[in-house]
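This entry is listed as follows:

___
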Amino acid sequence: MAGCEVRSFIVFLCMVVTLVSTGSAKYARQVLLVSMDGFRWDYVNQTSTPNFDRMARQGTHALYINSTFITKTFPDHYTIVTGLYEESHGILGNRMYDPVFNATFSRENQESRWWDGGEPLWVTARNNGRKSATFYWPGSEAEIRGVRPNIWLPYNESAPFRPRVDRVMDWLVNDSIDFVTLYFHEPDKTGHKYGPDSTQILGKVREMDGILGYILDNLEKFSLKDKVNLIVLSDHGMTSIDLQRRLIDITEVIDMEEDVLFTLDSGPIMHINPRKDPRYVVQKIRNATVPHLTVYLKEEIPIKWHYGNNRRVMPIFATADEGWAIVTVGFSGGELMKVTVSFSGSELMKVTLGFSGSELMMVTVGFSGSELMKVTVGFSDNELMKVTVVFSDSELMKVTVGFSGSELMEVTVVFSDSELMKVTVGFSGSELMEVTVGFSGSELMEVTVGFSDSELMKVTVGFSGSELMEVTVGFSDSELMMVTVVFSGSELMKVTVVFSDNELMEVTVDFSDSELMMVTVGFSGSELMKVTVVFSDNELMKVTVDFSGSKLMKVTLGFSGSELMRVGL
């Protein structure tokens, strides 16, 4: 079972509290608008939510509110802050295609042209001399009608919830922000993963109740109860879908190559951009009499949905009954053969899962433009054989992970245009054999780590130009044998450290261009045997100190020019 946003006739949670001063000021000046994504209206009745109860006692609440027709995060949230239906503000889904732009919108798109159909409250506030700030909200990262919030943040789902509250309180207390939004992606994420009727969702509801308690406590802590109107709501609810028994495979009734250019979205609705006459494709679907599926020409979409009057609605629009999902899935003889998800423009173009005899054969994810181009996962006899990731336009070009008999054989990462060119990790019989990192231009050229029977044998780091040229660490049977550092130009040329049986044998340092030329320290059986220091160009030429059995045997100081020439002891 999986969760899916419910249609317009299913309601979502909306709890509102207005905390106003009991003094002469009747209205509070500041507003904090909080969204808990996917918080279904009845979650508060299914588990203990003392802070939602507390909020209802202190203010007021609605049992439910009907969502807009498309119950998706982006269109619903934009309706909340603009007061417009989806066909009016133009955000018709989390993904959509605009035929005038000839481009596809995704949730990462912050171009103004997609958002200018409506005026969100943070823009209205600024246009009326008030200050606004957004701690996440769909559209808040875009400049809309030439205006941005005074404070806004790029979306980061991993940002902890309580620090989000702390930041918002600082805006209200110290920055005197008049209108603030605060967005949480839960319990929506948990609902999609485990289903809205799962035990996990109840645990997440209790967690979000704790976050609400933290908000209420902070309003009291900073004496904001009489200054801030707090509104807590959600964008939509959620219902369960049986992914084994309640899927409508659109590929069973239309030819995805002959009839369709592309489809957008899946689940309770699907946009279809046909290759042929839309009326022909619609009639073909209707003739198939697919249970639980209704298909419309764009002009047939019911007016009461306030959805069809926008160019971003495709010529064919399909809806599923509640609890059913529209997908593009292929089967053969009851065995799953292929799952494909396609998009258009510079957005996600294809996700393909291929099967043979119910064994997974391949997973491919393809993108276009300068976005991710391809991710391929290959299997043989259900054993993972290869994982390949390819990018374009000077971005990551390839990541390949190879397997043999489920044993990891090689990992390769390749870049282009003076970026990282190659990272290779080689294995034999699941034992690590070699790690190589290659660069181009004046950047790092190569880092090699070699192993034998999983024992480290050598580490080499190579550079080019006037940069570091080489660092080598050699081992034998996992014992350190040698360390070498080499540079070029007027920089350090060499540092060598030699070991035998893991005992330090010699340390040598070489330089060039009238700089320090050599420093050598020799050992035998970990006992210091010799120290030699050599310079050039009227500088100190030589200092030699010899030992035997750790006892000092000889000291030689040699100079040139009018300086001390030699002292021997």
Remarks:
- The longest helix spans residues 199-221.
- The chain has four domains: 2-241, 247-327, 332-503, 504-569.
